[in-house]
Amino acid sequence: MALLTGLFLAFSSSPGLAQDINCNSPQTQLDMNICAQRDFEKADAVLNSEYAKARDYMKSLDENLSANSQGAAKALLDAQRAWITYRDLACAADGFVVKGGTMEPMIISTCKARLTRQRIGDLRQLIDFK
User: Fold this and answer.
1) 3-state secondary structure 44-102
2) Residue 74: phi, psi to the nearest 5?
3) Fold assignment, 2-7+29-128
4) Per-residue pLDDT in tens (0 to 9) along the chain, 130 residues
């Protein structure tokens, strides 16, 4: 796995190589792996933005509570940390279907993107609860 990860990082960070990939029609497994990773990275960027909004909302809830009732922001932080652990472990488990194969990075990245988009929806529902 370390070798595959190293090769993936080497190819995906090589100037001119990864940039030329058409993710609308990837042609090789390496292209598919890189495109899946890019898709996850896009979802993760949205997640970070939505989490910041949810954190701000939870902090505003805490401000309106007595000191002994506060904890909304901490509860969200703890939940987010637990969710990240869950996402990463669940997707690693998915990867075992093709463990050591060239598809493993794609399977893991695709799973992470899917679960990240679900979490984005959860955070948006929390914010929209206002």
Assistant:
1) HHHHHHHHHHHHHHHHHHHHCCCHHHCCHHHHHHHHHHHHHHHHHHHHHHHHHHHCCCC
2) -65, -40
3) Substrate Binding Domain Of Dnak; Chain:A; Domain 2 (1.20.1270)
4) 554 455 555 554 544 455 689 999 999 999 999 999 999 999 999 999 999 999 999 999 999 899 999 999 999 999 999 999 999 999 999 999 999 999 999 999 999 999 999 999 999 999 997 6
Distance CA 112, CA 87 (A): 6
Give ∠ CA 46-62-72 in degrees, rounded to 5. 55
3-state secondary structure of 14: coil
All structural domains of the chain with their residue ranges: 2-7+29-128
Model's pTM, two decimal places? 0.82
Phi-psi region of 100 (alpha: psi -120 to 50; beta: other; left: phi over 0): left
Residue of 54, 26, 52, 53 whose CA lies nearest to 39: 26
